[in-house]
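Case study.
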Amino acid sequence: MAHGYYKVEGKPLMVLAHGTVGVQHAAMAMYNAYCDRVPIYVILGNIIDVTKRAPGVEWFHSVQDAAAMVRDFTKWDDLPISLEHFAESAVRAYRVAMTPPTMPVVLVADGDLQETPIASDLKIRIPKLTHEMPPVGDSGSVAEVARLLVAAENPVIMADRTARTPAGLACLVDLAETLQCSVVDQGARMNFPTRHPLNQSDRARAAVADADDILGLDVADFYGSTHSYRDQIERTSRPGTKPNAKLITISADDLYIKANYQDFQRYNEVDIAIAADSEATLPSLTEAVKRLITDDRKRAFQDRGVRLKAAHMQALERSRDAAAFAWDASPISTARMCMELWSQIQNEDWSLVGATTFVSKWPQRLWNFDKHYQYIGNAGGYGVGYGAPAATGAALANRKYGRLTVNIQNDGDLMYAPGVLWTAAHHKIPILHIMHNNRAYHQEVMQVQIMADRHSRGISNCGTGTTISGPDISYAKLAESMGVHGEGPISDPKDLGPAIKRAIEVVKRGEPALVDVVTQPR
Amino acid sequence: MRRAEQRAEAGATRRMELIAMRAGWMKRFVVLLFLFAFAALLFGFPVARAQQSSDAPPAGNAQNGKKLLVSYGCYECHGREGQGSTQTGAARIGPPQLSFEGFQNYVRKPTNQMPPYTSKAVPDQDLADIYAYLKSIPMPPKGKDIPLLNK
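After joint prediction, the assembly is written out as follows.
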């Protein structure tokens, strides 16, 4: 929940957990947040002094080094041994977590420290919290990048975890419109309006192949985004860019790296690498670009903008044509599901808080996103169990703004932490879950099939252990058992619109609802 | 009564004629088949090539193909109506954009992310059945003609 909350509200949520069993449950969520560069403020309880533990369970629930098992995927942790130490570390933890690259932090709260009465003469001082300024690219490097961008015939800006805040989206629009250049939004955050004519995300490969400069702004996998990859027995990879294309990155990831978990991806062979926060660097880069623009370049930019608008409209038309296939199919196509949902929410103040990766990114391809809170990306580490809890955390943040929170929820993912449905009902957190119920851990079905085919083991048994049927789960009944309004299962596309409409009425009353949609795989 | 007998007799005669005609066709068919077989033996390769280069796909059972699309797992990436997906990288195959020959060649030796499927994994006839099913899927209207896609 804390993961989703931060991405909407921009503030970390505090998480309290047992130092042993609690942190083991929380570890997957913490790993996702770490990979997604999301700060979470975690406090783990523990009892260090063996003479203070009760016999039995407290021994099972005590540990020598509580933060050890998550140290590889948190930014910082501490075990304060006095109240003043705790005060100082608590303030430090907040600042460390919130300084880009933002990440989870852990404080271990010793039981003895928590329970021992405070001495009457003890004066505890809590240090002042100063927000660190995010690291900005140095002016010389920024000027060089500006020079390259202005001179380029086809520069491409690639965004991913770029817009940490709503200001990031506005800054990116300013730079792109100044240059009239392509923007490819990888979608870890809501970086760029989907219907903006410069948005070329739906033809990303073509835009990258045609580029002479590519500027990556906090892109999680810049190598993968600039290379093609073929996953056959012999795995091959080759550049997807022109041989002389200049590659530039601005990324806070260059400021902090750990060794064990390999979330840092392939090494980027780039021409300029600026170790800085991209959102904070954008205003100075845009100013530097504006200073360099001549009348000639301005005319060239305008011509380029016209061409890109045409390419954007063609890509939109292609996506609409593609969505028409299997339009009336049962199970329901992911395109139909997404468009039935869109038709019901488009006139509301909506916020889509579930990842769209597994529904072929139809929302980004066909909906009109133009606000920062309208999309919050995915899990980060691809760890299952992220969806419903993160969405509920995001809905908690959206509640006070009166936004209609919508989550497209994968069926397998919900089975990891379905209890969050009850949490939403109990705390009256309004959220609409649209189940993408393809009755499988579908990514695994596909992977097992590739391997079975590769090793000639037969390709008709790949559903074993990967599909979720026999019996089919009724997610509507599951929801209702926890006090959440349930609709479905719905297999006929004609029934979907009315079901979504009924569910939205419930959500507008301040309660959670779920519509179980039996879907095509992707 | 007599009329009835006449009708019965006439009917019997007609049946005999039909049997005789069929026997004649059969004889002619067997002779033709023999001649074709002889020609195939004599000029075997040209005849086989002529059959392969035909644009018409081999006869396939669309109903069986629909089942095979699922049991062989094609649907996993391509969808149950072959609609494809940008997430899986699978092309739209329903209705097919390739001739059967091109379709078969691609399945055996794909050039992109799709794994190769040998005839041991998916026999030729099963592939023909799958193709027949995909071929039976009608083209949808253009996206601009579906109101929900234009909101």
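Observations recorded in class. Chain A has a mean pLDDT of 97. Residues 46 and 110 of chain A are 5 Å apart (CA to CA). We will return to this complex in the next lecture.
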